[in-house]
Amino acid sequence: MIVPVAPQRTCVVCRTRADKWLLARFTWQNGQAVADGGRQAAGRGVYVCRECLDMFYRRPERWPRWFKAARPNGKEGAGMKNKQDAAARRDGGAA
Ligand SMILES: [Zn+2]
Fold first, then answer.
1. How is domain 8-90 classified at the CATH fold level?
2. Distance between CA 19 and CA 77 in Å, rounded?
3. Which residue, 23, 64, 69, 86, is most buried by CB atoms nearer than 10 A?
4. Measured in angstroms, how far is the CA atom of residue 12 from the centroid of ligand 1?
């Protein structure tokens, strides 16, 4: 007997992994996060766990960062480079 493995997704706020259906999905539409109840809306989606939903709604200024962090698979290399560049810029600005 084959037991199907539940697909896992990462909460974009606390980075906890959980079964996909335990997380709420949001997509980025017209400059804001839109709850994707049907889980099939087009565009880049992020997942938020129940514990973080409240914070997610209260922090719209962080939506761009959270959605930016949700990179599609296969682009890790480019993401790493950008991250390093951003860190370098931050350090320079703080000094
Ligand atoms: Zn969370």
1. Hypothetical Cytosolic Protein; Chain: A; (3.30.1230)
2. 26
3. 23
4. 7
